[in-house]
Amino acid sequence: xxNDIKNVLIVGVGGQGVLLASEVxxxxxxxxxxxxxxxxxxxxxxxxxxxxxxxxxxxKVYSPIIPYGQADIIVSFEQAEALRSIEWLKKNxxxxxxxxxxxxxxxxxxxxxxxxDPIAELKTKVSRVIALDADKIxxxxxxxxxxxxxxxxxxSGELGFDSTIWNDAIKKRVKPKFVDINLLAFAKGQELxxxxxxxSA
Amino acid sequence: xxxxxSGNEAxxxxxxxxxIKLAAAYPGTPSTEILENIADKFPSIYSQWSPNEKVxxxxxxxxxxxxxxxxxxxxxxxxxxxxxxxxxxxxxxVGGGFVIVSADDxxxxxxxxxxxxxxxxxxxxxxxxxxxDSQESKDFVKLACEISEQFDTxxxxxxxxxxxxxxxxxxxxxxxxxxAEGFKRDMNKYVMIPSxxxxxxxxxxxxxxxLQKYSEETELNFVxxxxxxxxxxxxxxxxxxxxxxxxxxxxxxxxxxxxxxLNKIRKFVKSHKTTLIIEELEPYYEEQIKxxxxxxxxKKYFSNLGELSPYKVALGLKxxxxxxxxxxxxxxxxxxxxxxxxxxxGCPHRAPFMALKKLKVPxxxxxxxxxxxxxxxxxxxxxxxxxxxxxxxAIGMEKVNPDENGTAAVIGDSTFLHSGITGLLDAVYxxxxxxxxxxxxxxxxxxxxxxxxxxxxTLMGEKTKEVNLIELCKxxxxxxxxEVDPYDYxxxxxxxxxxxxxxxxxxxxxxxxxxxxxxxxxxKPYEVILDECNGCSACFRIGCPAISTSKExxxxxxxxxIIDPLLCTGCSVCAQICKPEAIVLVSEPxxxxx
Lengths: 201, 594
Description:
The structure holds two protein chains of two kinds. By secondary structure, chain A is α/β, with parallel strands linked by helices.
């Protein structure tokens, strides 16, 4: 029973839309009829801290937290945060990350340093990495805030849910006036994933 | 109907279904969303923010005695503030069903301690219910109301951050309409003069015996028999972590946590070869189980520090010899820079802290966004204990250790109104030489922007009287009260310098709203003229997330500054302290050809 559970970790920095992405993913799993739990800690996230959302679904889910080494997929909206999160990744798990670079004030203090190329480092450790200039693509689609749904499109093939169900979930969870552009971003993500040979589905 | 709800949303839904008539609270992570959801989704329930938890609790008592089912919610440390009415309300008993939500914060995600409030229920000799997921969070509100009315006692619903903020599928029920009983005058029961209180204490003891029997019989404490010779006694979120690791052993799940079903526990332990207790934080079950002469272990394997997790539970189970292997991380964690929360770009609290840092005075602090000033690079806060403590702390410190530059206490508007007023009264009464800086942004910002008596709006969205802080401070007897624009760094520095040196108490109130709420402040951004930037790093040291190091270096290899135009709110504080005047409004054309 334990084995049919899928674990997806979504990470980013306050304000990047981590929570909306995890809502859309949860809604999709719910429409499919699965049990779901989702966990994140609020409070400090609005002040530039790391935001991490754990989403788990399957026949029966107990704990809302993904244990280390057991995330099937990690979706990251910031490249250094992708690197920070690998402790959760399963062997052969997939990381899809934006190349977004958000350097916090503390890394300008001289005490800490933001790595030069977090994605290169990531690739030395993890075999299945998709890194995208998601900011740029989102901007081309018409809104910088589309990074989250774009990346959901990228990983959607891994989960095997029907595209129409994803679309229904987006319609349900995204504000009406942004639905169309988010559907577009999702489809763009799916298209980009097909071009990448890292995704198995 | 099925819905995907957080524990807090589920409690709000439970309040509707239980026929709660009044809900009162002071915001506090992780409890805040309960009242927000009630106000937002179920306006048939009267809901209100009170200035603090004690008042919220007392308002709740009034409503319960008035015959209505009542909910009060608070974070764990909020119950310390409300402990006075809490302890005595346990004696009087209720009118309409009365539920106190205590939302504890193991791991201190957003708190100053991680006290385990299950002990509060035992301390007051009242029952508590503890849900393990969102479904139970909803269902237990109604059950708690029924237990409250059946046994004439307030009932605690004990949540934790992980239950409050995790989401799960909830099957919703139909709201009920409990009969309105009205207030029944009963002075012997409700007027706790010593002669009455002595009699009520007897009632509390008798009630406890009845609750003990109930605890043994209720399905809230159930055995999950999977035919195993291993038994786990657990409750709350720990139940889920245990099930993740051991889906097929036997469980005694505790949903009704005080008084404990000790006979049921004894029987469960006897019928298993090995029994373990898995509980988060303190050995609350374990102490009572051991005191009853049942010798089983818990804290020997599972730490009382911080949150448990599936991983920590697995480690404990391995140590106890229940499992052979723990799944470890496949990939080594990366040692990266931290990403601590910081004051927002354009936060009106920034310049007052820059000024205090410059003045090199002791700064007693308080609870709110501004506590972030303790972190680098500002590093200017010397104490943070509890709501309102800054003022008392400064008074004591100044009495024994007067600083020639003065002593400052820093407190926000919501915290001042919560429990700073009495501190300021003390400063006046006892002739203290402190300066109280009230960072007045007109909102309770740290918890996500709730209204308070300084906002001018109620939780249910009605316009109301805004407290006038200047007049309030003057009425308390403070003679020197000044208002200052916190975006004017020099003016802020000047007024603080003068006031700190003055004998007697003084108050400096900043007068700009939060940059995020009620509406986001976004003026024209500033930029750095790289040719003018000398890499002095002064702007890095004010801790603004919009400012970072650019790839451009000065001749002495120091990084020049760069401002992110999407984050900059145009507050101008960095430009005011930039000596080479390299920071200018983006629209200023002077850059070209200079």
